[in-house]
Write a structure and sequence with these properties.
The protein is an alpha+beta fold. Helix content is about 40%, strand content about 20%. Among the domains are: about 150 residues, 3-Layer(aba) Sandwich (Rossmann fold), CATH 3.40.50; about 60 residues, Methionyl-trna Synthetase, domain 2, CATH 2.170.220. Helix 3 crosses helix 4 and helix 5 crosses helix 9. The chain is globular. The protein starts with a helix and ends in a 5-residue tail after the last helix.
Length: about 325
């Protein structure tokens, strides 16, 4: 405290000269290098104050602090653009998913610019880099035996000629009887729903009656990764960087045992699955979207791996 008071009394002249910004910002040997990512906002709406305060403003505050400390800092973010929510919103607005994403990406960029959020790069997930990196990670998982195939029963609308992802089907909630429940959850009782459990289901596009049809999907074999994940968690928990709440939630998942997680969807709007027998499917957005942090950095600099594969710095 005494040192802080002394520096404060000396005024701005006592401060070290500000770091001269480099383009692109890359890790520097022997310096403190800080990569900051703000949670990717979903693209199908106009951001409001809650969105900005919830993640973007916090990250911006920390980025400004790091730069004031003269730490070598890269701050990236971008819009999350794949998934069923984009497809349904595009249908409502009479646009293609790409047109909808282009419109709202521009709105997001304008809003954050108005708030002077200090991103070094604000990108998006619908890019060739996203496809290349996501498919590369998929191929590596496949080659190492961490993927498996299984059959799921899904609702299919024969009139539209497509399987109906959760947001493309509505019906009566099997738990509370609410007549306008979605295929993923009931907005009245709040319970999660498997779409095939809905009573009197209807296709949201044509209002036809879908039928239950089996379809093949790919799963991430999480039980095979459980042992090495637990060992890694024990090491990182010991370092003390996790909050108590994060540790508790993660322990709960491990206590109940990890289950295989489906990573594909019967949609057209998404990153294509590069495997014969699955080329009419795309990656589930929760497999694809986190890779957006990497691909957005890769769109900022072709030396992105110096940030993402560089634990020593």
């Amino acid at each position: 405290i005494a040192a802080a008071v002394d520096i404060w009394a000396q005024g701005p002249a006592a401060l070290p000269p500000p770091r001269q910004p480099r383009t692109p910002v890359l890790p520097v040997e022997g310096e403190r290098n800080v990569l900051i990512t703000s949670a990717l906002p979903y693209v199908n709406n106009v951001p409001h104050l809650g969105n900005i305060i919830g993640c973007v403003l916090s990250a911006d505050t920390f980025a400004r602090y790091c730069r004031l400390r003269n730490w070598n800092t890269l701050f990236v973010c971008g819009t999350d653009e794949y998934g069923t929510a984009t497809e349904t919103r595009a249908l409502e607005e009479g646009l293609s998913p790409q047109e909808l994403c282009d419109r709202y990406h521009a709105v997001h960029a304008q809003v954050y610019s108005w708030f002077r959020i200090s991103f070094d790069h604000f990108g998006r997930t619908t890019t060739p880099q996203q496809t290349r990196i996501a498919q590369d990670i998929f191929q590596r998982l496949l080659a190492r035996g961490f993927l498996l195939q299984d059959t799921l029963e899904q609702l299919r609308c024969e009139s539209c000629g497509r399987y109906l992802a959760d947001r493309f089907v509505e019906g009566t909630c099997p738990f509370c009887g609410y007549a306008e429940a979605r295929g993923d959850q009931c907005d009245k009782c709040g319970k999660l729903i498997n779409a095939v459990e809905l009573k009197s289901p209807q296709c949201k596009i044509c209002r036809g009656v879908p039928v239950v049809t089996p379809t093949q999907h790919l799963f991430l074999d999480l039980p095979k990764l459980e042992g090495r994940l637990e060992a890694w968690l024990e090491r990182t928990w010991a370092a003390g960087d996790w909050t108590a709440n994060a540790r508790h939630i993660t322990r709960t998942w491990l206590r109940d045992g990890l289950k295989p997680r489906c990573i594909t969807r019967d949609l057209t709007w998404g990153t294509p699955v590069p495997l014969d027998g699955f080329r009419d499917k795309v990656f589930y957005v929760w497999f694809d979207a986190p890779i957006g942090y990497l691909s957005i950095t890769a769109n900022y600099t072709d030396q992105w791996e110096r940030w993402w594969k560089n634990p020593q710095q």
